[in-house]
Amino acid sequence: MGVTLSGAGATFPYPFYSIVFRDYMRKNPGVRVNYGAIGSGGGIRSLRDKSVDFAASDAFLNEKETASMGAEVVHIPTCMGGVVLSYTLSGVDSLRLTGELIADIFMGKITRWNDPRLAAENPNVRFPDLEITPVYRSDGSGTTFVFSEYLNKVSPEWNREMGTGKALKWKAGLAAKGNPGVASIVQLTEGAIGYVGSEYALTLQMPSALLKNKAGNYVKATLETISAAAETDLSDDMKLTLTDMPHPHAYPISMLTWLLVYEDQTYCGHSRQEAEVLVDLLNYIIGPDGQKLAAQVNYVPLPLRAVQKTQRIINRIHFAGEKLSTAPDPEIAIVNVLSETETVGDHEKTVLHEKSLVDER
Amino acid sequence: MSDRVKFSNVKKRAAKDKIVFGLVCLFSFLAMIPLFLIIWEVVSKGYKNFNWRLFTQVAPSSMDALLAKMSGEPIPGGILNGITGTILIVGMAVLFTIPLGLFVGIYLSEHPENKFARTVSYLTDLLQGMPSIVIGIIAYIWVVKPLRSYSALAGSVALTIMMLPMVVRSTEETLKMLPRTLKESGLALGASYTSVVFRVILPSGFGGIFTGILLAVSRVMGETAPLMLTALGAAVVNWNILKPTSAIPLLIWDFYNDPNLVDIIWSASLLLLIVIFLLNWIAKIVARRWKI
Amino acid sequence: MKDKIFKGLLFAAALAILLLTAGVIYVLVKQSLDVFHEYGVFGFIFNAEWDPRPETEEYGAWSFIIGTLFTAFFALLLCIPFSLPVALFNGEYFKGYKISSFVSSVVDLLAGIPSIVYGLWGFYTLRPIVIQLGVNAQGFGIFLASIVLAVMIIPYASSLSAEFLSMIPDTVKEGAYSLGATRAETIRHVSLPMASSGIVAAYILALGRALGETMAVTMLIGNTTNVPTSLRDTGNTMASVIANQFGEADGLKLSALIGIGLLLFLITAVINLIAKFIMKKLSVR
Predict the structure, then answer these.
(1) Does a structural domain hold residue B58?
(2) Does this model's pTM top 0.90?
């Protein structure tokens, strides 16, 4: 008797999930895992209706959503990613930006590339006198959520005027549907700048800006810098945002993406067998095999302490009171926040064309 | 003098006639251009990855595509799970739609003055204008929620709702155009109403009815939004109607969102176009054979 | 006896459609109650504000209603000069000839192209042309979306119209010819009026398709929440705003989106009523 698991949710992690599920199915014949990239909201609704076994979301549940679920839902982070500022500007190979500059660009307060504030940040660059075309997401998206959450932290004006959310009331620029939409417009429009999911930008090797992080360093989005953002105090339920993190190598717009499941797996229409396979799948995803796959398609594996915290969360999932996970509770390593990052996966097959990791002033 | 006036009038009218004919030909030709442009775009971008594997292998994962790209090979895998899914979902929808749509169309054409019939005809037109995503929402509430699972069945229900208006209305209007004598002479010969319908009326109206069905099927084969909310998608071939299933447009959506798989959109679309072309061709042959 | 059963089945089928539509309306109303409760029916319809931020939520459907009507009717207008000639070509002039088979197959294929492919074609091929024509700076907008919509609905209008035209008995037409009428005059005074009821139905089908089209429009219309006032503007249609925001929506926003779906239904109802009125006038003659 085969087991079929279904999940639905965000489009951002879809390429990673399609690979890791396929891998899991190969190693466990008789198990089928289906995933539909219908958007985080769709995933959450489906989980609430119990028409799927797990949901995928780039933003953790807020209070209202949590209350509406009816039962305790745990958040399992599966990998990390980031939001990249991609641009098309001939003659400009390297662009430095700060959070405030980005906020002002997307609020329509900085309208031309040769604005003195951009020049001040980029002393070695000659900017053309060209209009800036900001490109944003027309569809509700977790990428927008993380982007706006970051700008909320670093720009008081953004906080006041724009706020945080999966969809915003934009004042300037063009709208496009999905990562591919934004990427296409940016690539085809001279002077355009848009925010794109990191795996997308890294895979297509789109030119991206170096952002000044909290520690004052200019950082590009890479597997290492995004991972560094998780080198901080992690909450036990892993419901946290990783923007503007203190690590000196941290990429400022980093994010986690989660799979959501019910902590108590005894609900109508869900068998014990399904619950066991589900937990086994989750363990697989955060285990070394799963995380290695993530790196291979430009998703960022979870650093060690994140994995350990996550393992503890998975171990809480139960069926009628019985713990389902076969993995032991790990001792959370006490790691100095400023030490080098340790990742579970390896980066051998990185596709990236590595440029300098950190641009020190 | 009156002869000359008549003569020039005839010339003017003949000239008008020729102009109209010319315009009809010109604009018909122009109407075909977008199709050739689109076909050109789809073919030129899609032929690279178009091969036997498209039919025999399931959709590739992001990594398969990435590795292939790096070594300059065509992307492996195919869209078999999408093909079987589309066959299953659209097939079931057609099974649901044809009897229901035909019967309603017959009923409506038989009772044109009846208030009830007019209301039903009107409501059918309303269904036509519904955005596919709203139909998807409704099918989700009616089928997915109670079953607690995404399924091919839910997808078929959604597609049925989308196809019904076209089949009903084209059947109704086609049968309305048939001369009443056709039915009356059949009945006068003592045949039962049922046999007159099945042996005389339906065959006579076959052309219009078939066109309506064909348009309906062609339309729903390319629909993404309702299937996202009902069939969800699957990475493997699935024939179980109560489980999530893939479909060609769902795969195209998946590929669109994946930077490594974007190139196969065109191959999948090319396949879809070929299937629809074949459908049309077969339909034309069948219609010609059956037409009285 | 067999007839009774058969006629009963016919009636049951028609009843099923009635129940189906009633069911659809019921679901839409139930899910959208929240937003109508919040703003009142007219408050929601005529409000052009759309603010999805959690703190300052406000939803109004007006921008999208205008966007929908604008694109659908403009698309219909654009499609008539192409679908009518094609219908005449296939149903009248070249009826039965091989070339008509070819032309009608080609045009019917337009109906089979998935909307996402239309979107991609519009994006890659048409958009640069629109920019070149100087319509607006980024190409997206009402103009581009309407053009693609027009192409999409041509086959719906032309195929059925052609069928109805071809069903006109030759005897009627020959009567006109014997009176000295030219082909064009026969078409204008005999064929078109006779098939008018069906032709209008075909165009309503096409309009319905345009009103409900989601994917292609959403990729080309610019997705902004302003009220579009000219062809150069970007905007949004009711179907595309639902498609865009549905994936992430919940609570009041979800209710607002479904409310928009209900409004679209109502708009289609009104348009159809008007069309039925026109059709009645045409068949009386």
Answers:
(1) no
(2) no
